[in-house]
Design the sequence.
């Protein structure tokens, strides 16, 4: 499960589960929460990102910038159908900013995608 996502060059955490499985929080015409995912398919992918000397994290995202509109939609936690200025939310968004102390369990001392040579990150 990948609970981290990179948006606007910042890490975000989905405390309730996999970032790829985020559900839209907009209210439907019938008054309930939209059942659509924020993203259809897997557009962003899983990548490793270095957090300076602290180490590495694996996160759903892209090493390059995604379109501002897409990042805004993700942060609003809206599907493409509810990506409008007049969308009303049924529930609060689940994403929260990554905190290097609170979320230390996600940080690995070495890269996951290469053989570990015993050296700590930054050495």
Sequence:
């Amino acid at each position: 499960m990948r609970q981290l996502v990179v948006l606007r060059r910042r890490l975000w955490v989905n405390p309730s589960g996999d970032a790829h499985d985020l559900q839209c929080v907009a209210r439907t015409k019938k008054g309930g929460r939209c059942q659509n995912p924020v993203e259809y398919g897997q557009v962003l992918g899983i990548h490793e990102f270095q957090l300076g000397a602290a180490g590495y994290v694996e996160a759903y995202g892209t090493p390059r910038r995604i379109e501002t509109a897409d990042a805004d939609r993700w942060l609003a936690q809206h599907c493409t159908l509810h990506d409008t200025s007049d969308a009303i939310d049924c529930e609060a968004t689940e994403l929260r900013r990554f905190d290097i102390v609170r979320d230390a369990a996600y940080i690995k001392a070495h890269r996951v995608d290469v053989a570990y040579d015993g050296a700590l990150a930054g050495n």
Residues 57 and 121 are 12 Å apart (CA to CA). The two ends are 29 Å apart (CA to CA). The longest helix spans residues 68-76.
